[in-house]
Amino acid sequence: MLGSIDCTHIEWKNCPRELRGAYVRGDIKKPTIILEAVASNDLWIWHSYFGVPGSNNDINVLHTSPLFQSVTDGTAPSSPFYFNGRHYRRGFYFVDGIYPSWSVFVKAPSFPVEAKEKAFKKLQESARKDVERAFGVLKGRWGILHRPVRSMTKKSIHSIVYACIILHNMLIKHDGRAISPDWVPDPPTQVQVPQDIHLQLRNEETHFRLRFDLIELVASLGLEFPDSDEE
């Protein structure tokens, strides 16, 4: 697991009137700009992508995000692994139900029936809260993101958001809570991009097979959770 991915909205108080239609979504009612991020359990933000108008949803942001750019151009570090006797080419991210069923995403079952599926759903949703916790800490620590941003230009808001993210990670490292406090560059490798790289990333069969293997792992651990009906 490489981390959890999700999006949050940064409110833009002084959005120009002529742009409000692109930055206002029906369920939010105020102009916002979307921040996509990947975070790990220590709340370190490994990836951030800011700037998509707030009228979009998470899928629209994903399709314009550079999250998989290093994978498609062949510069991403190799991270294959074997799980339950099966070979997987690269790591995966925990996501919520709106994201597509790609090979690099793991979603919880929408309607779990068996006990092991219900246990996995609770574990996946619990782990996926890492990125939401990171958003909460980021906005709570830097009030300028928690309140409507007053800057007149999108460029200045862009600089503010990325500066806050950099300071957020610096504080995690300073507090000694970073999982990987030292940066070690990957050795140079020959760039090799499979012709079907986009098909590999979007492979639904791999997505469901990986989730099945993870569910079987949870079942083998013997974890028990009370049913929501009993709660």
Describe the structure.
This protein is 39% helix and 16% strand. The model has no long low-confidence stretch (mean pLDDT 90). The strands form two sheets. A five-stranded mixed beta sheet has the order 3-2-1-6-7, with helices on both faces. The chain has a two-stranded antiparallel sheet with strand order 4-5. With 231 residues, the protein is α/β, with parallel strands linked by helices. Helix 4 packs across helix 8. The chain has helices at residues 20-23, 58-64, 69-72, 115-141, 143-146, 154-174, 197-201, 204-221; strands at residues 3-11, 32-39, 45-53, 81-83, 86-88, 93-94, 105-106.
Set down the secondary structure blueprint.
Elements: E1 3-11, H1 20-23, E2 32-39, E3 45-53, H2 58-64, H3 69-72, E4 81-83, E5 86-88, E6 93-94, E7 105-106, H4 115-141, H5 143-146, H6 154-174, H7 197-201, H8 204-221
Parallel strand pairs: 1-6, 6-7
Antiparallel strand pairs: 1-2, 2-3, 4-5
Descriptors:
231 residues; alpha/beta; five-stranded mixed beta sheet; two-stranded antiparallel ribbon; 8 helices; 7 strands; globular
Q: Spatial order of the strands in the main sheet?
A: 3-2-1-6-7
How far is the N terminus from the C terminus? Answer: 29 Å
Outline:
globular
Q: Calculate the mean pLDDT score and round it.
A: 90
Helix % is: 25-40%
Strand content: 15-25%
Judged by helices, strands and strand pairing, the structural class is alpha/beta
Please give the count of helices: 8
Q: Could you name the ranges where pLDDT drops below 50 across 5 or more consecutive residues?
A: none
SSE string, helices as H and strands as E: EHEEHHEEEEHHHHH
Query: What's the alpha carbon Rg, rounded to whole Å?
Result: 19 Å
Outline the biggest β-sheet.
5 strands, mixed
| Strands, total number | 7
Quaternary structure classification: single chain
